[in-house]
Amino acid sequence: MMRVEILRREVAEHWRGVAAWTVGAMLLSSIYVLFYASIHSSGASIQHLLESLPKALRTALLGSGVNYLSPGGYLGTELFAFLAPVLLLVMGVLGGSRALAGEEDNGTIELLLSTPTPRSRLTLQKALGALLPVFVVTAGIWTAVAAVGPSQKLTVNLGGLAVALVAVALMATGFGMLAFLVASASGSSSLGGGLAAGVAVCLYVVNVVGSVVRPLTGFAHAVSPFHWVGGAGVLVYGVPWSSLLLLIACPVVLLGVSIVAYQRRDVRA
After folding, report:
1. Alpha-carbon distance 108 to 191, whole Å?
2. pLDDT band at 50 (very low <50, low <70, confident <90, very high)
3. pLDDT tens-place string over residues 165-192
4. Of 262, 257, 267, 256, which Cα lies nearest the Cα of 118?
5. Spatial contact of 99 and 184, defined as CB atoms under 8 Å apart
6. Is the pTM for the entire model greater than 0.85?
7. Where are the domains of the chain?
């Protein structure tokens, strides 16, 4: 049986921070849900404002054919166009960049490397310990929407909501694993986090530009995870299985490369 002492250590050291992130995410999600009743009651003026926007901009912000005032349209726009991706991405990138490189910064990596634990197992458990909190916070967001939504007449398919949130969490773990790979291979948490954040921003811009500039739409949809997760229309149209497979494959491949790279690296404590 695979020993998981390092993973247990990660959970024990960081559970308070994860709990704080989860509570904060649940509160923010609840606030967005509580606003729905007042937004829906003033629907005519909001709908007029949205219709006055240029079609390309409206599509980029809301998605094609999405009614903002519907429960799925509102929650998709407010939760999936900004809050959930940004929150989970920050968690993933910070956790991934600090997982192994942080041990080097703290001078504790020599203690871990001196144990009988193979580097491959060390790398795997540090990655899991860094990125599992993303899914804990994701579960908290789902719970908040499921608990508060019905009281505000904001009811959506909870299975579809779960799939959409898992897709965003997988995207966050992908960027987190990119930060993990760069940081563990270089020994610099700032380089890993900065590079992953920069790539995320670039791909977000590509997705937005692609939704406005038709000749770039196909390219943007193919390369940007922000399109794969469904965007503002995700609760209306769902997440395609092909996109889910891509979102799963990216962090798995990056984890495999990270394990090989760290095994071959000459770590100087």
Report:
1. 19
2. low
3. 999 999 999 999 999 999 999 888 999 9
4. 262
5. yes
6. yes
7. 5-264
Count how many residues are written for the chain: 269
User: Residue 132's closest CA among 124, 142, 122?
Assistant: 124
Residue pair 102/189 in contact by the 8 Å Cβ criterion: yes
Of the listed ranges 165-179, 189-203, 205-219, 243-257, the least confidently predicted one is 205-219
